Amino acid sequence: MSHPDRIQQCHEALRGPPMTADELAYQLSLRAAEMARAEARRNPQPQLELQ
């Protein structure tokens, strides 16, 4: 999907009805999970050695 298509898709979504509480909770959980993955990529933990 090209950048202008993504922008158009965002504009169309903004014109739609507001999210329900369940939809908002789901979107926030996705965002929190992605933020946690990004943080893990920035600060990798040392791997445990198997013996």
Word description of this protein:
This protein is 69% helix and 0% strand. The longest helix is centred in the middle third of the chain and has 22 residues, at 21-42. It has helices at residues 3-15, 21-42.
Lay out the secondary structure:
Blueprint: H1 3-15, H2 21-42
The SSE string, one letter per element, is: HH
What share of the residues lie within helices? 55-70%
Number of strands: 0
Low-confidence stretches: none
State the distance separating the first and last CA atoms.
Answer: 47 Å
Largest sheet: none
Give the quaternary arrangement of the chains: single chain
Mean pLDDT: 87
Provide a count of the helices: 2
Class from helix and strand fractions = mainly alpha
Shape: elongated
Strand content: under 5%
Relevant terms:
51 residues; mainly alpha
